[in-house]
Amino acid sequence: MQEYATKQADNSISEAQARRKRIDRYKACIVWLFLAATIIPSLVSIILLIQVHSLEKQVLAYAESGDGDMNTLISSGEALMSNPNVDMEALTGEDMNYWIDPEGLEPSLITGTNHNAKRVYLTFDDGPSIYTGQILDILEANDVKATFFVIARENESYWPYYTRILEEGHTLGMHSYTHNYNQVYASLDNFEADVEQLSQFLYERTGEYPTIYRFPGGSSNTVCDVPMTECIAYLNEQHIAYYDWNALNGDAVTEELSPEKLVENVMNSVRQNDTSIVLMHDMQSRHNTVESLQMLIDTLKEEGYEILPIDEKAPLIQHVPYDTGFEEAAD
Ligand SMILES: [Zn+2]
């Protein structure tokens, strides 16, 4: 009898111990879950904050370098959307916003273009550079014509590229003499002098005056001290048309994007437009843009796009709303 009682007592002791162990396990579980629920998100937040901080620093450094059209990248998307001159008509190709007054121009009679195909205009800013030759070689090998918005290189070794661009059927456009925002945009006089200087420089190199322009930083840049409409009015007086873009590969933001990513960026915008002007850079620090070019051309061709150089039939894709006044200028 006493043995039985002892056994029962042992049992209840071991049961009590087992229960306590279970409770301890539950407690440990709850503590761990609590730690996981609080510490992991905190750690992730800290890591993200550090990343955001370093990206902000990169963006600022880039914007301050004044060399990459960074300011425009930030604002161009919004600017394009809010510009009444660049309504969807201009981008869908249904009723193109022509550089020349479209009266008398019969789009169906324009030769050499397939109007069922979506159109893509590849543009390269900031050249010539050490890569211009390679870019031209790739374009030639693929029988593709593009547009180069160039600056003035005083180093004579770059001069043959200005003529080669034209000789090989591409369009040569202006992108300021110096690309130094502080100089070009300090006053309207500076802007006018810069355009004139580059125009003359290119005439001396090629025997032709260029008729198209891309603003350093785009027309929606936030670095120009002069009202942009005054600069645009000056270009209109000179019969120079300016072009922004509605697609970009992102190479202005960082040189570190892979060729695949550059192509993906372009295609993401291009697939949403019927007509795209694509912003890319011909710069010493942008080797991946050269690396991506063949892949970009292949992808565009595979998906049925027509690749064209900017000419008077290209739609005016512009970020700043402005009445171009070309009808007046034509008189
Ligand atoms: Zn530029």
Please explain how this structure is put together:
With 331 residues, this protein is an alpha/beta fold. It has two domains: 65 residues; 260 residues, Glycoside hydrolase/deacetylase (TIM Barrel, Alpha-Beta Barrel). The protein has eleven helices and eight strands. Strands 1, 2, 3, 6, 7 and 8 form a six-stranded parallel beta sheet that branches. Strands 4-5 form a two-stranded parallel sheet. Helix 8 links the parallel strand 4 and strand 5. Helix 9 packs across helix 10. The longest helix has 64 residues. The protein is elongated. Bound molecules: zinc ion. Zinc ion binds next to strand 1.
Element-by-element helix/strand order: HHHEHEHEHHEHEEHEHEH
Q: Sum up the overall morphology in one term.
A: elongated
Ligands, ions, cofactors? zinc ion
CATH architectural grouping of the largest domain? Alpha-Beta Barrel
Compute the separation of the termini in Å: 125 Å
Would you report the number of β strands?
8
